[in-house]
């Protein structure tokens, strides 16, 4: 074999190795990227926006939240919380809230449920957080 052919084969082999390594890295990054999704967290207060009095008892609020969530989602998690804030006039308010965790859904579905919470609980707004996360439904089966 001539020296030119040997050099050409070596260059082709090096390029082939570089392309293979690049393909492996790109596949790994793409696979890792595909594992990420968005977890939505909704914070729903239960005090009426006009009177700052509870719209429902905590048990009634959880029941109403459950009804809304079942209608919109296949699954969810609810936590109870107590929050507070200071109004523009300096008055301190406290309220029972529900914190809702949602995965495997869309922002549009979350906002549709939030619209219903705003109406049902007479709220000014519902806080929605979008957190990048990895979700796995792990099973030993």
**SSE succession:** HEHEEHE
Radius of gyration (Å): 26 Å
Tell me the strand percentage band. Answer: 25-35%
Morphology: elongated
Mean pLDDT: 86
Widest sheet, order of strands: 2-3-1-4
Q: What is the CATH class name of the largest domain?
A: Alpha Beta
Outline the low-pLDDT stretches.
Answer: none
Question: Explain this structure to me?
Answer:
It is a single chain. The chain is an alpha+beta fold and 141 residues long. The protein has 2 domains: 1-36; 37-132, 2-Layer Sandwich (Alpha-Beta Plaits). Helices cover 43% and strands 28% of the residues. It has 3 helices and 4 strands; from the N terminus they run H-E-H-E-E-H-E. Strands 2-3-1-4 form a 4-stranded antiparallel beta sheet. Strand 2 (77-86) and strand 3 (92-102) form a beta hairpin. Helix 2 (58-72) runs antiparallel to helix 3 (107-120). The longest helix has 32 residues, at 3-34. The N and C termini lie far apart (58 Å). The model has no long low-confidence stretch (mean pLDDT 86).
């Amino acid at each position: 074999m001539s020296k030119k052919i040997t050099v050409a084969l070596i260059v082709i082999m090096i390029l082939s190795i570089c392309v293979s390594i690049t393909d492996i890295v790109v596949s790994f990054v793409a696979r890792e990227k595909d594992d990420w999704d968005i977890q939505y967290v909704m914070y729903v207060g239960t005090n009426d926006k006009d009177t700052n009095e509870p719209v429902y008892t905590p048990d009634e609020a959880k029941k109403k939240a459950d009804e809304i969530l079942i209608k919109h989602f296949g699954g969810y998690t609810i936590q109870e919380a107590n929050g507070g804030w200071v109004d523009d006039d300096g008055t301190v308010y406290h309220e029972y809230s529900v914190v809702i965790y949602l995965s495997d859904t869309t922002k549009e579905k979350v906002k549709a449920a939030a619209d219903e919470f705003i109406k049902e609980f007479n709220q000014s707004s519902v806080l929605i957080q979008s957190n990048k996360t990895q979700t796995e439904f792990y099973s030993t089966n």
